[in-house]
Design brief:
six-stranded mixed beta sheet, Rossmann fold, alpha/beta, 10 helices, four-stranded antiparallel beta sheet, 2 domains, 249 residues, globular
């Protein structure tokens, strides 16, 4: 049952680190994001829920500069970033963990991690590497192993670790549970919570609504490129349309 007649109901009370205002995004003539408004407060975990072709991944690409809005504004840390190149966004503290992880399979774990810090130098890089290994001891054990020979869950750990090597303020996670054994999904979500407690703001795109709503403070529901619901995660979980569409109840 569609929920497209619903309206967003609640916004973050924290100062926004990231904000979309009336954003329209296109692929050629295809109108993908349609007047979208998001607000991600500093220090929050905010989730985006929606089915296939709802606009979730396009949101991530828009934040990262792969796709530019035709209308509206995207602001980060109080500045409009519509026309900033991707490399500059990384330098300012935005780091993605893309869907399907996008690692360099023939390179080692350590080499993939080093690439995450390509724009940084000095002792801080070594300190960040130690922090990643503390979060994911399995990566330390497999430091010299080629990324392509690791399991899906281990690769997801590596993708998150690589993003953390950029020392982000905003970490964007696109479908982190996809193709991963449930026992490792649980560990990855525990680690996401630890990363957030360390001060990193997180925007989470996830089809597994149970995981997303458990860990996030607030959420948005997308349908065919429009925000149809926005509320605290516990209230979204109790919404009957969300339950039917995403929770299987």
């Amino acid at each position: 049952m569609p929920i497209s007649d619903a309206q967003p109901r609640q916004q973050s009370e924290r100062p926004p680190l990231l904000e979309f205002k009336d954003v329209d995004t296109y692929y050629g003539e295809l109108h993908v994001l349609k007047g979208v408004n998001y607000r991600v407060g500093t220090g929050e975990i905010v989730c985006l829920l929606g089915g296939n072709a709802s606009g979730k991944s396009t949101t991530m690409k828009t934040i990262f500069g792969i796709v530019k809005p035709k209308n509206g504004t995207v602001t980060y840390a109080g500045e409009t970033i519509n026309n900033l190149p991707t490399a500059e966004r990384v330098k300012r503290g935005i780091a993605p963990v893309p869907e399907a992880r996008r690692l360099f399979p023939r390179m080692s774990v350590r080499e993939n991690l080093d690439l995450g810090a390509y724009h940084r130098r000095g002792a801080e890089v070594r300190a960040d590497l130690d922090r990643v290994f503390a979060l994911f001891p399995r990566l330390h054990e497999r430091e010299k192993q080629k990324a392509g020979t690791m399991s899906g869950g281990e690769q997801q750990m590596l993708a998150i670790g690589r993003a953390l090597m950029a020392r982000p303020q905003l970490l964007m996670l696109d479908e982190p549970s996809m193709g991963i054994a449930p026992i490792l999904v649980q560990r990855i979500y525990e680690t996401i919570g630890e990363i957030n407690k360390a001060g990193v703001t997180i925007l989470l795109v996830e089809q597994n609504a149970n995981y997303a709503l458990d860990i996030s403070k607030r959420g948005y529901v997308l349908e065919t490129g429009r925000v149809v619901l926005a509320n605290d995660s516990d209230l979204l979980r109790d919404d009957p349309e969300v339950q039917r569409a995403y929770l299987g109840t």
